[in-house]
Amino acid sequence: MALRARALYDFRSENPGEISLREHEVLSLCSEQDIEGWLEGVNSRGDRGLFPASYVQVIRAPAAEPPPPARYANVPVGGFEPLPPPAAFKPAAQQPPPEPFPPPPAGYPFPPYGGSYQPSQGSDDDWDDDWDDSSTVADEPGALGSSYPDYEAAGGGASGRYRLSTRSEPSLGPRGAGHPPGHPHPPGGGGAAKSSATVSRNLNRFSTFVKSGGEAFVLGEASGFVKDGDKLCVVLGPRGPEWQENPYPFQCSIEDPTKQTKFKGMKSYIAYKLVPSHTGQQVHRRYKHFDWLYGRLAEKFPVISVPHLPEKQATGRFEEDFISKRRKGLAWWMDHMCSHPVLAQCDAFQHFLTCPSTDEKAWKQGKRKAEKDEMVGANFFLTISVPTGPGASLDLQEVESQVDGFKAFTKKMDESALQLNHTANEFARKQVTGFKKEYQKVGHSFKCLSQAFELDQQAFSAGLNQAIAFTAKAYDAIGDLFADQPRQDLDAVMDLLALYQGHLANFPDIIHVQKGALTKVKESKRHVEEGKMELQKAEGIQERCNIISFATLAEINHFHKIRVRDFKSQMQHFLQQQILFFQKVTQKLEEALHKYDSV
């Protein structure tokens, strides 16, 4: 059973990484152990972060097993200075609450970034079924759609698997031995260091740079085995670094959402039919399966923007409008997943797309294997292979300029997307309610005029009466056209904006990792100039920073490429639908006009 706590007082967050509490609110705790007076958990609104331990009371209940290491979701995205001590608001209760402790000091040991993802509270799909059985049936060959050979020794024992390390271990041999290109190798053990100066660690241990494993990688603390299939290649394209294209591109449709039940009808859920083009075999997945996959991918790829899923909803989950809207959102999500050269080839994603819906054992095998993936955190960066040789190195000053330019771009795009979304939503509301009402009001007025004219029994006026009555119906029909039009054009625009707002929310963390690596390079260069660090050690830090920079620039280029594709297509669709709409309106008016020709 998950750890829970009840809030004793109100608490309002003031700093990044904190969440607000309401008195008597029940929270889910990531761990019962406080960190210098602070706990991490999820409040009833699904927000995840830190709050004062003295503000809550732990609800004692039998625990099944200790929770996995927590992944902090609400972390600061800018700057490298330690967070100031959060100021707690005075709660509304008569009894003043105790003052929260200041944040933990620098150097406090925190759980690694690569902990298991936990779905946020408020999920509209429960996990209390046999799909998420706690028993472990993984570690059997065939999970995740492919079987990798076992390796008995640390050195490999079969081709296609490399030991990569950023540690200074003499036993690893000379530079480049047995390593794929694009990865720095630590210097050998020969020669004594001329000083013991090292690059300092970030004081803010909650930063994305630290929790993603970026700091550990840059400082040379990563070590692991990388299979050929795990390598992520960055190549130099016409626009600079790019992810190597998927040699076998595919698409996947999401169709026919259907309501299904289990436990003899006691539990209901919506299942979506997925049909990947590269297999042609349909599978059925629930929203919670999408949610699990998103969690694994967001945890594994700290420098890749994993598209956000459509928002969850606790009530009205089985209403037709909500199901239709969610299916469209999932279709956009799936399109971006299949279009990404790295995400599309990820084993967990392929398992999600191809594992038969009826094969529960195979699903669990793949699920457990994905959750035991060792190439997360600092080890993830070992899988990135970058260009080598003359002309392949990056100018860090130029990289910094490009990243700063992209940061300004995303900020402006986010503001514009919010404005357009608000404008489109307001305009759609007016079309559905205001415009329809006004046009039908005009139609009703014409109808009243026609009824008045019908009191005249003259035969020569009958044609005019009928024409005016038809005009009234035309305006009534135009009102209905206005009410239905947002479904044809504006809704699709707002769905696309929602998807990109998720991407824009991802990039501050991605940029933060790159900026953190660049800061370590500058510090190492300063140590070299002062004679406190060997040049070879500083060059290793810069090489590892280059890997992060290559990956960041590749992701930025992919974002721009897919953005141009999507907004071109969506604007064309919007304008085409607008033209069709006004053609329908014109047709209604022309039909009404022709009725007067015979009067």
UniProtKB/TrEMBL annotation:
This is SNX18 protein. PANTHER family: SORTING NEXIN (PTHR45827), SORTING NEXIN-18 (PTHR45827:SF4). Residues 123-133 have a biased composition (Acidic residues). Its main location: membrane. Residues 85-112 have a biased composition (Pro residues). Pfam families: BAR_3_WASP_bdg, PX, SH3_9. Belongs to the sorting nexin family. The lineage of its organism: Eukaryota, Metazoa, Chordata, Craniata, Vertebrata. InterPro entries: AH/BAR_dom_sf, PX_dom, PX_dom_sf, SH3-like_dom_sf, SH3_domain, SNX18_PX, SNX18_SH3, Snx9_fam. Residues 250-360 form the PX domain. A 1,2-diacyl-sn-glycero-3-phospho-(1D-myo-inositol-4,5-bisphosphate) binds at residues 286, 288, 326. It comes from Chaetorhynchus papuensis (pygmy drongo). Keywords: Cell cycle, Cell division, Cytoplasmic vesicle, Endocytosis, Membrane, Mitosis, Protein transport, SH3 domain, Transport. One of its GO terms (cellular component) is cytoplasmic vesicle membrane. Residues 85-197 are annotated as: Disordered. Residues 1-61 form the SH3 domain. GO terms for molecular function: phosphatidylinositol binding. It is found in: Cytoplasmic vesicle membrane. One of its GO terms (biological process) is protein transport. Gene3D superfamilies: Arfaptin homology (AH) domain/BAR domain, Phox-like domain, SH3 Domains. It is a peripheral membrane protein. It comes from the Eukaryota.
